[in-house]
Write a structure and sequence with these properties.
By secondary structure, the chain is of the alpha/beta class. The chain is built from 19 helices and 16 strands. The chain is elongated.
């Protein structure tokens, strides 16, 4: 049953559409259809209020298989109504939903039940566990209803109990478990059904903050193992940001923005979203690659010490990143050391390597950068696959990203660290050593000398 575990990679999001919602409307009230018609013609939610409550207005989105898609919004914004329309718990007033290509709107009950059994499960905030049944029986309950033989359903239930970290609790009764554990039973029950799609409505909202955090982490881990498609509703922004591959922000029944947590933080669609996200713990959401700047002080290893020294002089900085083929980061050079190399007429750069300078991968959260940022005067190097240098994060940039302010004016690029060798000494050294370095270089050094 968990065969999918083997072939799931670290990034689970695939290109296959698991859930598609097209122009969904839900109006509660006797004249719902009239209200939808007016909404489609441009009427506002308030305009149609006499006809009914427009809980969801023209919601469209696609969720990819393996994605965690979070629906976020204030109380009353329409989240629960939206999610309940996906699995047919609520009828849509207008619009269509498909799950794994199977329609769940405007279909006979029998068909809907089949989709619910095979394709989509739901976890609620308060999971109604059966009090007189053991954890094991509660978890296996869905399979019992499906008519699976006892041995088989208990085997599957044991597996999911173990997956959610409840080994040893299978024979206990719900009242013997803490709130967090009970919620795990709820999740185990949904997982046992082995549907591709899980709908989770404020599933962790009733839990204490610490347990909630633990559950969030566990959900991400489980999702990593199982590659499920999860639609998760929350009004907690930090939870949305932590869990979501993408987030849909709802306001007054409408989806006002869909984007990655970083999109939503760095490029909010409107003032509402901007205000909504202003209290988010940016350090945990933003990653190194989302705030990095192009690395300016970079030299190619083959260019040699003279070129490195010129680069540092021109940028007024005391350090340069050295890259090899395909921009592989080889290390860092410092102006004083390179000056010595030039004086000694050395031809090969000797970059300082490895742990001597701060370097992180692009997906590192900003919260993990503080220590690195204070441990060195160098900007933090951001690398991608095969140690390719993608960009750098000077300390000012890190601070600016956390404070959500711009780094600088365009005319004044942030150069860290500042030069330690005066420009004229570098220029004079380059000129004085030009003869030994070669004629072509001499001409360049002379012209540089006259410019400074
Ligand atoms: N059965 C119903 N009958 C009438 N109005 C309803 C019904 N269910 C929801 N509504 C209204 O629809 C709107 C959206 O409610 P919904 O519960 O979907 O919002 P929500 O974002 O999930 O809020 P919460 O976080 O408080 O659950 C609200 O104005 C609500 O009062």
């Amino acid at each position: 049953m968990w065969s999918s575990q083997d072939d799931v990679t670290e990034t689970n999001v695939t290109d296959t559409v698991a859930v598609r919602a097209e122009n969904l409307f839900k109006v509660f009230g006797r004249r719902a259809q009239d209200a939808v018609k007016q909404l489609k013609d441009g009427a506002s939610r308030a305009d149609v209020a006499p006809l009914g409550t427009a809980a969801v207005i023209d919601a469209s989105f696609e969720v990819k298989k393996g994605e965690i898609f979070v629906v976020m919004g204030l109380s009353g914004s329409g989240k629960s109504t939206l999610i309940r329309m996906l699995n047919g718990l609520l009828e849509t007033t207008s619009g269509q939903v498909t799950i794994n290509g199977k329609q769940t709107t405007d279909v006979p009950m029998k068909e809907l039940r089949k989709v619910r059994r095979d394709d989509v499960s739901m976890v609620f905030q308060h999971f109604a566990l059966l009090p007189h049944r053991t954890v094991l029986d509660n978890v296996a309950y869905g399979l019992e209803i499906q008519g699976l033989p006892k041995a088989k359903r208990l085997e599957q239930a044991r597996r999911t109990i173990s997956l959610v970290g409840l080994d040893g609790w299978a024979d206990k009764f719900p009242h013997e478990l803490s709130g967090g554990m009970q919620q795990r039973v709820g999740i185990a029950r949904a997982l046992t059904a082995d549907t591709d799609v899980l709908l989770m409505d404020e599933a962790f909202s009733a839990l204490d903050p610490l347990i909630r955090r633990e559950m969030q982490e566990q959900l991400v881990e489980l999702q990593g193992q199982l590659g499920k498609t999860i639609i998760f509703i929350t009004h907690d922004l930090n939870e949305a940001m932590f869990l979501g591959d993408r987030i849909a922000v709802m306001r007054d029944g409408r989806i006002v923005q869909i984007g990655t947590p970083e999109d939503i933080l760095t490029d909010p669609a409107n003032d509402y979203v901007a205000q909504f996200v202003q209290d988010v713990d940016r350090a945990r959401v933003l990653t190194a690659s989302s705030v990095m700047e192009p690395a300016r002080s970079v030299v190619s290893a083959t260019a040699g010490p003279r070129a490195a020294l010129r680069t540092m002089r021109d940028l007024q900085t005391s350090a340069a990143f050295v890259v090899g083929r395909n921009r592989t980061l080889l290390g860092v050079v410092r102006d004083s050391a390179v000056l010595k190399q030039v004086r000694a007429n050395e031809r090969d750069l000797a970059p300082i390597k490895g742990d001597e300078f701060p370097s992180v991968t692009g997906d590192t959260a900003l919260s993990e950068l503080y220590e690195l940022a204070v441990s060195s005067d160098l900007p933090i190097a951001v690398t991608g696959e095969n140690d390719r240098l993608l960009g750098v994060i000077p300390r000012v940039t890190l601070l600016a990203a956390l404070g959500n302010v711009t780094t600088n004016t365009d005319e004044l690029p942030v150069m860290e660290p500042p030069a330690t060798v005066p420009v004229n000494i570098i220029t004079e050294t380059l000129a004085a050593t030009a003869a030994a370095a070669g004629v072509a270089d001499r001409a360049q050094a002379t012209s540089e000398g006259s410019q400074s």
